[in-house]
């Protein structure tokens, strides 16, 4: 999973909870042969939120009056070189989470964010993942699969 996915990923049960937090357990540096085109509105690879800088590229996110920041403001937040460096990292395993009213999380398993609504989650997959990363999960507060 690339960091730029955090620009759009949200809790499927409550899409207003965005952006999600990320804990990386394993990652690798990639050489990208194909570099995507930047968004026209931001001139960056993310359109709404930069995870690397933990900064919004829009004012009033998720509101009716959401508006992309001026390019000059975006340049103060994140450079084009920052974006190119960000593209090099691939998250192999980790956790996407939020703690809105209680801890809710989603695994990133073998580069794939597994983001099903509660009723569709695979408890066995989550148990295997928690066992594999027991200390890392415990640090976040994850000791068992989420209850449906």
Structure report:
This protein is of the alpha+beta class and 148 residues long. It has a domain at 23-31 and 92-143. It contains four helices and eight strands, in the order E-E-E-E-E-H-H-E-E-E-H-H. Strands 1-6-7-8 form a four-stranded antiparallel β-sheet, with helices on one face. The chain has a two-stranded antiparallel ribbon with strand order 2-3. A two-stranded antiparallel ribbon has the order 4-5. A hairpin with a 3-residue loop joins strand 6 (89-99) and strand 7. The longest helix has 10 residues, at 123-132. The radius of gyration is 16 Å and the shape is globular. The two termini are 26 Å apart. The mean pLDDT is 95.
Describe the secondary structure blueprint for this structure:
Layout: E1 21-29, E2 49-50, E3 55-56, E4 58-59, E5 67-68, H1 71-77, H2 80-87, E6 89-99, E7 103-109, E8 112-114, H3 123-132, H4 134-140
Antiparallel strand pairs: 1-6, 2-3, 4-5, 6-7, 7-8
Keywords:
single chain; 148 residues; alpha+beta; two-stranded antiparallel ribbon; 4 helices
Helix percent reads 10-25%
The order of strands across the largest sheet is 1-6-7-8
Overall morphology: globular
Strand content: 25-35%
Radius of gyration: 16 Å
Enumerate how many helices there are, as a single number.
4
Oligomer: single chain
Main β sheet profile = 4 strands, antiparallel
How far is it from the N-terminal to the C-terminal residue, by CA?
26 Å
Uncertain spans: none
What is the number of E strands? Answer: 8
* Pattern of helices and strands: EEEEEHHEEEHH
The helix/strand class is alpha+beta
Mean pLDDT score: 95
């Amino acid at each position: 999973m690339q960091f730029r996915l955090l620009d759009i990923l949200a809790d499927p049960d409550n899409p207003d909870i965005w952006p999600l937090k990320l804990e990386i357990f394993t990652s690798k540096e990639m050489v990208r042969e194909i570099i995507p085109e930047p968004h026209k509105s931001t001139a960056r690879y993310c359109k709404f939120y930069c995870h690397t800088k933990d900064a919004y590229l829009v004012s009033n996110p998720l509101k009716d009056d959401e508006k992309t920041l001026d390019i000059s403001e975006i340049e103060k937040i994140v450079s084009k070189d920052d974006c190119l460096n960000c593209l090099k990292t691939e998250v192999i395993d980790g956790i996407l989470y939020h703690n809105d009213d209680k801890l809710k999380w989603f695994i990133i398993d073998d580069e794939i964010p597994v983001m099903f609504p509660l009723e569709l989650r695979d408890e066995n997959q989550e148990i295997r993942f928690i066992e594999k990363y027991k200390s890392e999960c415990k640090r976040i507060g994850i000791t068992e699969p989420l209850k449906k």
